[in-house]
Amino acid sequence: MKNYEDYVNHLAKIADVGNSIAVLSWDQEVMMPPKGAEKRAQQISTLAGIHHELSAQEDFGKLLQQLLKDNSLSDEQKRNVSESLTEFDKNNKYTTAFVQEMSKTVSQAFQAWNKAKKEDDFKLFEPYLEKLVKLKREECELLGYENHPYDALIDLYEPKTTVAELDVLFADVKNQLVDFVKQIADAPQNEDALMRQHYPKEKQLAFTELVLEKMGYDFEAGRQDISSHPFSTSFSPEDSRVTTRVSEEDLSEILWSSIHEGGHALYEQGLKVENYGLPAGTYLSLGMHESQSRLWENNVGRSLSFWKYFYPKLQETFPDNLKNYTVGDFYKAMNIVKPSFIRTNADELTYHFHVLIRYEIEKELILGNIEVSDLPRVWNEKYKAYLNIDVPSDAKGVLQDIHWSHGSFGYFPTYSLGSFYAAQFFHKAQGQIENLEEKIEQGNYTELLDWLRTNIHQYGRLYSASELCERVTGEKLNFTYFMQYAKAKYEKLYALQATEKLITN
């Protein structure tokens, strides 16, 4: 068993270095002064090189091969080793020089993106993005793929998922969601002016911290800060942090940012501390991660039940703003379906058109069918085609997301996957947790969080996303659950004629 202990210790070292990079990255986006950027890029690059060397060490590979043949290991230990070997093989496809170059370029690109967004000038970001795209195309060739080069990048975030599968999924989005959104657009519209009043920043932060704590987020093992683009990051289950975005003229910005990122953090806090560094102590995939944030943000956080508990507290926080509005008014305001420029501010239905646009752009960009210089034009054309809106600026258009500055190509599809997994999981939870809606109304989320931790969080990467979905729900990912949820909710909100129920319990 000593070999397995050596394996565990080595993975802990790799995790230590990786989490040190994460700390520096968190600081870069939250606390770092502007002049620290150059040296921070160097620091992260150095650590990324060390992380890669540890991950791709020849002796580590030999140890994994030995353990793979060890029949004394438990099923969980065998799965840990198998997942580590897959990761080892992938890491060995990279050179240390490539890893360091990518890391340095990402750090520089983030600073350039931040400046470009503030100044509303894509040209400031363009040369850095060109370099990143060149590196990502190179990465596809290093990793290898069977059909589409973009498959190699998708696999980094959602293992074993391909363009062919995603094309089918997004065809469902086009075929089913587009018509439903059009029905909503043709119906009498609800008002959301109550969201767009002056809400003092500090009171917003205090309220969302109350919400996060009630959800089960452990502030002894995390904190909430402000960043230009909301994100969560974890250094261990005992230090999992969230950031949010605050607009004093739009309350919705912080609400959905904090609840969404809180869902991510609850997943990380639910991983087993004793499995630190091991696949069993690591999140399964980005799609699965997004399922947790989307479930809390949409299925719970945008529900009437949730706000029957929290709205009186929100009224107490902002009495002058909300004294003349009911919880029903607030529920309608938070669930407006309307095309918008900004993905993170989008409603939960049109949101998937934002993802679809990015998915289509990334596929063509990686193939070389479009170039970086084409992006503002292509972006604006697609927003006109899918959402029928004219993008007014780069800042509200092609520069709005942080992901490309991080080199995160292949990431965006996981957002839609997450929403669809969330709907399926929540449907199952409703069937297994007695009076779940009533408990949510009472501000009691303990059983739901326990259900998620029992069925999803505790397993880490011991199963694939498809395996886990089937284990939890009895079937593979099924888009129909999302459509059932959407129709049940929005037909009432917009007084549409009800359609036939799609799924029965």
Structural description of this entry:
- There is one protein chain.
- The protein has 505 residues and is mostly helical.
- It folds into two domains: 2-144, no CATH class; 163-493, Neurolysin, domain 3 (Orthogonal Bundle).
- The chain is built from 21 helices and three strands.
- A three-stranded mixed beta sheet has the order 1-3-2.
- Helix 8 (163-186) packs antiparallel against helix 15 (351-367) and helix 9 (201-215) packs parallel to helix 10.
- Residues 500-505 have low confidence and may be disordered.
Q: What characteristics describe this protein?
A:
Neurolysin, domain 3; 505 residues; 3-stranded mixed beta sheet; disordered C terminus
Helix-strand layout with pairing:
Layout (H helix, E strand, L loop, with lengths): L1 H29 L6 H19 L2 H11 L6 H17 L4 H24 L6 H18 L5 H9 L5 H24 L14 H15 L8 E3 L5 E5 L2 E6 L7 H18 L16 H15 L3 H14 L1 H4 L4 H8 L16 H17 L7 H13 L25 H20 L3 H6 L4 H10 L9 H9 L6 H14 L12
Parallel strand pairs: 1-3
Antiparallel strand pairs: 2-3
Helix pairs in contact: 1-2, 1-3, 2-5, 3-4, 5-6, 6-7, 8-15, 8-21, 9-10, 9-12, 10-11, 11-17, 12-14, 15-16
- End-to-end distance: 47 Å
CATH class of the largest domain: Mainly Alpha
- Give me the side-by-side strand order of the main sheet: 1-3-2
**How many domains?**
2
Cα shape = globular
In the CATH scheme, what's the topology name of the largest domain? Neurolysin, domain 3
Main sheet specs: 3 strands, mixed
What fraction of residues sit in β-strands?
Answer: under 5%
Poorly predicted ranges (pLDDT <50, ≥5 residues)? 500-505
Query: What radius of gyration results from the CA coordinates?
Result: 23 Å
Number of strand segments: 3
> Element order, helices and strands?
HHHHHHHHHEEEHHHHHHHHHHHH
Helix percentage: 55-70%
Name given to the CATH architecture of the largest domain: Orthogonal Bundle
Structural class: mainly alpha
